[in-house]
User: Which sequence fits this backbone?
């Protein structure tokens, strides 16, 4: 969809879709998710783009946004993409484009179309078998509409470690200074925490940076519980955006990440596979084939073996 041909209605909600070059995977670690989310939040606020939803899947991104004009929407998504890809390439030892250009978008005018798009976006992880209910998936951020810590325990200030206090302070300082949470900073902060406090820090970051207009989102349904009932009763549909669909469940990507980082302990960050030489990737291809239920297509996407997809 060329930018000059892109349909746009002022004030309408746009379903923005970004897929990757050759369909390769994007998200392997907390650093990848948080980097994208905080960049998206910072840039969308800069351009005064209203956000009803974001969903980060292993190999693509969805967002529901409204902007003042088509040019503003294009500049916003372009800056998010450029900023994220530069940091991503540096962190993963790769070069070149990551997302297809131009991004896809579809105008949703009227409450019925918008609610259908909302259900579609938030149910992406349900459709890909990553969870049973939309609010159970952290990276569509739906659970944060009613809680600042939906995926971690709640502790009073005196009950948390000095390391977590320092980490929160550093994140808050970065937020107030207008910076996103970069990969290196987050990795350093997470290493100082146990698994429970790592989850607490991630929830803190998401809640602090969130650009999602939950009030407007919930208003389409009349209440949070009504929204959850509606979203979980209807998966929605999308006919205006070309989306490559793989029938195999995305749980295979979770299994491959777990296999490489926990079961085998081969990598601290599964995203390290991206920069491996071809012969090593081919060895891992065979290992993942035996150890997981992933299809050959999924393993190639995961290993960035794009030349043979």
Assistant:
């Amino acid at each position: 969809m060329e930018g000059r041909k892109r349909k746009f209605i002022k004030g309408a909600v746009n379903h923005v879709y970004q897929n990757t070059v050759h369909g390769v995977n994007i998200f392997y670690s907390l650093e990848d998710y948080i980097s994208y989310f905080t960049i998206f939040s910072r840039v969308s606020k800069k351009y005064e783009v209203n956000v009803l939803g974001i969903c980060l899947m292993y190999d693509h991104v969805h967002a529901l946004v409204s902007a003042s004009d088509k040019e503003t929407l294009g500049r916003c998504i372009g800056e998010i993409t450029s900023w994220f890809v530069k940091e991503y390439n540096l962190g993963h030892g790769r070069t070149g484009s990551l997302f297809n250009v131009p991004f896809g978008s579809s105008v949703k005018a009227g409450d019925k179309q918008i609610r259908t798009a909302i259900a579609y976006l938030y149910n992406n992880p349900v459709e890909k078998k990553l969870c049973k209910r939309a609010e159970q998936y952290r990276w569509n951020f739906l659970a944060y509409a009613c809680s600042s810590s939906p995926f971690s325990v709640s502790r009073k200030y005196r009950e948390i470690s000095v390391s977590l206090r320092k980490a929160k302070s550093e994140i808050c300082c970065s937020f107030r200074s207008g910076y996103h949470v970069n990969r290196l900073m987050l990795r350093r902060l997470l290493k100082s925490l146990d698994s429970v406090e790592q989850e607490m820090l991630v929830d803190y970051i998401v809640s602090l940076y969130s650009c999602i207009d939950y009030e407007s989102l919930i208003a389409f349904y009349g209440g949070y519980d009504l929204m959850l009932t509606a979203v979980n009763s209807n998966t929605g549909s999308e006919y205006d955006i070309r989306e490559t669909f793989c029938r195999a469940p995305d749980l295979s990507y979770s299994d491959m990440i777990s296999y490489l980082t926990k079961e085998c302990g081969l990598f601290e960050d599964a995203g390290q596979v991206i920069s491996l030489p071809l012969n090593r990737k081919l060895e891992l291809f065979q290992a993942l084939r035996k150890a997981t239920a992933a299809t050959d297509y999924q393993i190639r996407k995961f290993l960035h073996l794009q030349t043979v997809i």
Q: What stands out?
A: The CA atoms of residues 109 and 202 lie 34 Å apart. The longest strand covers residues 13-19. The longest helix spans residues 70-92. The chain has three domains: 3-146+210-233, 157-208, 251-308.
